[in-house]
Structures are given as C-alpha cells and as structure tokens.
Amino acid sequence: MLDQSLAGNEEYRRRVQQEAAYLSSKGWYHTIELRGGEIIQGLHPIETLREKLNAFPIPADLRGKTVLDIGAWTGWYSFELERRGARVTAMDCVAPEEFFQARRLLDSRVEHLTLDVDELDPQTAGTFDYVLFFGILYHLRHPLLALEKVCSVTREAAFVESYVIDGANPAAEDSGIPNLLEFYETDELGGQLDNWYGPNTKCLLALCRSAGFARVRLEKMVAGRACVSCWRRWDPPPEQPSEPAPTIQAAVNNRTQKTQFHHGKDEYVCCYFRASRSGLTKEQVFAEVDGYGVPALFLKDFGDNGYQLNFRCPPWLEPGLHEIRLRTQGSHYSQPIHIEKR
Ligand SMILES: C[S@@+](CC[C@H](N)C(=O)[O-])C[C@H]1O[C@@H](n2cnc3c(N)ncnc32)[C@H](O)[C@@H]1O
Predict the structure, then answer these.
(1) Is residue 61 a contact partner of residue 82, using CB atoms and an 8 Å limit?
(2) Is residue 252 a contact partner of residue 269, using CB atoms and an 8 Å limit?
(3) Which of 56, 73, 163 to probe ligand 1 with, by most ligand atoms within 8 A of CB?
(4) Which residues 6+ apart lie within 8 Å of 185 measured at CB?
(5) Domains present along the chain, CATH in parentheses
C-alpha cells in the first residue's frame, strides 16, 4: 500500500515506479498510465483504447454528466471519462483487484458497482447521461434483453462496441444482406465458453434500435469491431415546420384496445392519428414516450390522412401515467395523450 502522504516526493515516485513494474508483470487487461507518466502495461495499448473511445461522439468536457461503464474490467474507459469531468460508475459482474489498484494509484473517485447485466435496471443502478457498453454484448446469453436494460438506464446516449462477424467488410444498411446473428452453443468462438453470439454489423444496429433507442448510427470500425452510437431522443423538430402537427386520436394496448399496459408483459402501443397529408412512411413519423424517442415498427395509412402507428411500450416504465406525442418529419409535436402502466 502506497502512503499518499508521500505524494510529490522522490521516495513516493520511486515506489510508484516499482509498483507499476510489478503490476505490469501480472498481465493486466488495459494499459494504465499513472499521473507521473509511469505505465502499467496491459494487453491493450493506450493508443488502441484511445482510438476506440475517440470513434464515438463523446464530449471532451463531461463536467456535470454521469457515465456508467458496463463491463469496466480494469477501468481505463472509466478513468478516462472521469478525467474529462464526468461522475463515473464502473460496473462489472466481478470486482477485479486491478481496478481497485488502478483507482488508488490514479487517486480516482470512480465508483465500482458489482452487478450482472441481468440485474441492471433503473432501480438497481439509477440512470446515466451516457453509458458505455464496450466488449460485452457477445458475452451475454440474452443480447437483446441486455440492450433493453442498457437503454432503460440511459438518458442521452449509449455507446456500443462489439465483435461482429463481418468486421473486415461490414454490410451496409441498404445492402439487402439480411440481419445475421450467429449462435455459439459451446466454445466455438475463440475457444471461450462465454462467447455466445456474433451479429453482423447490420444486425447489431437493428438490435440496438429494437432495444428501444431512437437513433442508432455506425460510427466506425476499429480493428474489425463495430462502434455504434445509440441516442434516446429524436433530433429536435424543425424550427420552421413545413406542415401542421398531427393530432393523436387514441393510444391503446394493441392486445386489449385499452389504455392500460402491464408490468412484465411484452406489449405494443397502437397509436391512431391524423396528419395533414397522406403517404407518410414509418421513417417519417417520430413518436416519443415521456420525451424519449421510440422506434416505429409499423405504420398503416388508412387514407384520408388517417394513420395507425405501432411501437413497443418500453418495458421499464414505472407504474402511473406516461405521455405520448408524435410528429412528422416536417412538423412540430402533436398534443400529448396518456397511457397507464400498471
Ligand atoms: C472483454 S471485457 C471488456 C472490458 C472493457 N469494457 C473493454 O472494452 O476494454 C468484458 C467485461 O465484461 C464483464 N462481463 C461479462 N459478462 C458480464 C455480465 N453478465 N455482467 C456484467 N459484466 C460482465 C467481464 O467481467 C469483463 O470485465
């Protein structure tokens, strides 16, 4: 244990250097650079870690923001975002000694949360402005459920980094190639027992949308892995609308045609509305629940400017009333209408 009261003197520096050399020999996952420039060498060099992080549009100034780093392991990403000013929680299903050693040597205040993704929800972990989900999706047996859990704790954006099966040549979204998800029953992928799925890039984007994120974008491929940004809100409506706002006539549970939705059930909202024109597509209609965008699954044009829009009722909604609005590409938002979660 280093005595922090010695910080700044030669004796302290020498002891940090010795400790960094000793820890490097233990086989760390992330390389960690200490404040005096000493390096704890890990499997992943700083340059690669930085290239991955910089693939995402994460603000350089994160003061006043909260971040959850899921599957943080040694914690390089957590410590880096703390350096940018964020209040960071590093979450992992294990509590690796290396994380705590690095935290002490960096004099960091990153909190550690030992939690399995299966246990993650706003009640257990709270909600965060930004969430990192790096190098973990393919380790999970229920990847879509996991992404839903990630979405439930995200207020602004989640950043997903993942192994994909077409890393060298990712399928463009409009390529006509289907969404593919390989399943590894035992240790087929890399001889590891905790690799369960390999999506193609197109499928990874579709999974992120299906989990409930409004806007999903492939930012970059880094070393054959996909870096995907997932935003909870739609772009703001146009300042000068080119068409009047739609009017919602009803928003009901598509199973019951009632306004009640039930905790623990996979239920879908059926929203009837009138717009100022016919011929809208589901890509031109933006619905939201409590201000968060929800991806459209189905749009039916009844003619005479009447429509039906279906979207998934976010499963994590608390009991009580929730506000639904929608707009078209060229309009402001409709009036709000409420559904009830029980
Ligand atoms: C490949 S490492 C990725 C580390 C880091 N995020 C990165 O990208 O460099 C996967 C991490 O996810 C954690 N992990 C695996 N399954 C998990 C689960 N079900 N819940 C929480 N963490 C999990 C592992 O303990 C490990 O720290």
Answers:
(1) no
(2) yes
(3) 73
(4) none
(5) 46-231 (3.40.50.150), 247-341 (2.60.40.10)
pTM: 0.94
Using a 6 Å cutoff on CB, does residue 140 contact ligand 1?
A: yes
Strand partners, 39: 33
Helix (H) or strand (E) holding 130: strand 128-134
C-alpha 66 to ligand 1 mean position (Å): 20
Percent of the chain with pLDDT over 90: 87
93 within ligand 1 shell (Cβ under 6 A) = yes
Q: What is the pLDDT of residues 132-171, one digit of tens each?
A: 999 999 999 999 999 999 999 999 999 999 999 999 999 8
pLDDT at 84: 98
User: Is the confidence at residue 3, as pLDDT, over 60?
Assistant: no
3-class DSSP state for residue 33? strand
